[in-house]
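Possible regression after last week's pipeline update?

I re-ran a chain I had predicted before the update to compare outputs. Posting the input and the new output here so someone can diff against the archived version. Not blocking, just want to make sure nothing changed silently.
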Amino acid sequence: MATITISRQYASGGEEIAAHVAQILGYTIFDKTMMAQVASDLGLTENEIVDFRETDQRSLGFLDRLLGRTLTVAEVSTWQEDLDGVRRPATTRISDSQAVAMVRGVVDAAYKRGNVVIVGRGGQAILQGRPGVLHVRIIAPTEHRIQRLMDRDSLPSTEAQLQIEDYDRAARDYVRRYYDLDSQDPAHYHLLINTGQLDLATAAQVIALAAQQMQPVPQPEYEPPAAMPFFYPI
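New output (post-update):
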């Protein structure tokens, strides 16, 4: 069966649908736990993995994005060797571009494992054009998403709308900045599902059925990309 990527508007039900799809198909959700598992295949430890997602892009201000500035997204404890060969503890700052390179490498490794649902993280761009991948976009009318946040998080409508605008903007910027791809363009997806028209359970069934029709693709041996940063934690 296919690897599945799910791109979603905020509060459209994408995460819930992904979890249901994984349950139907017996797939694994690509999350921090799976990243740690895949990291071991790449010779990395769990401490070396930085999961830089669309929501983290919100930390990068408009002026920073406009000027192409980098963002420190994590600090990793490492060992550094001095001229005398003595190893001493040090802290390495990981930039957003380094973190994205790491996420990209781990997503690629997860694809080669197969039977995985990748939610966000630019999966539709990283695996664009790869055989055996089903790309899905989940959307919903703004009023439906506002109501979902009001019900889920007990938010007033104005705050719910601001959250939606903020997170959607961050997700668009993330994919555009790091992958030069318009995440809203339906041409990048096999399925576009509107949860204002379909309930979440039905949407999951549609995705699972589509994935079951795709043939698995044999994968070559994985080789970490040269751009993937490696750190050696204490």
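Follow-up from reviewer: compared with the archived run. The CA atoms of residues 80 and 88 lie 5 Å apart. Marking as no regression found.
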